[in-house]
Amino acid sequence: MNEHTQGPWRNEEQSVYGEGDSYIGYLEDFSDEDARRVVACVNACSDINIDVLERPAQLGKTIQGYFEKRLEMRSEIATLKAQRDDLRIHCDGWEKQYRVLESSFFALKEQRDELLSVLNKLRIDHYQCEDGYYSCPKSGDCPNSNPNDDCNCGADDHNAVIDATIAKATT
Ligand SMILES: [Zn+2]
């Protein structure tokens, strides 16, 4: 057997029982007090490796020191667990906030894209009149216009405002 019987152990008139009330054996030559002590020591040292128990000097401490160290470690573990639980609560909170922000972000992006699509439809063409003489020089329909003539129908100014607005919303 590689492992001793798991605890807690129990002594009943030198009959010793282990985990799940399994019978370990009878400490025939032991007094009841000695059997009691053996069982108490096994239970007290249940989570200490047997190699350490046999050579406490390896730690440079006595068994008493080992117990003190174990208590310190237990306290440290409890503190670390509390910090972990606290962090978990914070992480849950941050994750919820992130989800809310993410959902707001996508809603706003959708609204922006809808507005951009409407803005794009609001662009106008240069004025074209049946009598081409009155058409905007940049309409391509004005017979007496020069290539360098400016728009006189307001389309360029109007479209420039739309372009500037779109540029602002997409940078
Ligand atoms: Zn024009």
Number of helices: 4
Bulk shape: rod-shaped
The ligands bound in this entry are:
zinc ion
* Low-pLDDT runs: none
Average pLDDT over all residues = 89
Spatial strand arrangement across the major sheet: 1-2-3
Helix content: 40-55%
Summarize the helix and strand pattern as letters.
EEEHHHH
Distance between the termini: 73 Å
Measured by DSSP, the beta-strand proportion falls in: 5-15%
Please summarize the sheet with the most strands: 3 strands, antiparallel
Radius of gyration over C-alpha positions, nearest whole angstrom: 43 Å
Structural class of the secondary elements?
A: mainly alpha
Number of strands: 3
What would you note in describing this structure?
The chain has 4 helices and 3 strands, in the order βββαααα. Among the domains are: 46 residues, no CATH class; 48 residues, no CATH class. The chain is rod-shaped, with a radius of gyration of 43 Å. It binds zinc ion (ZN).
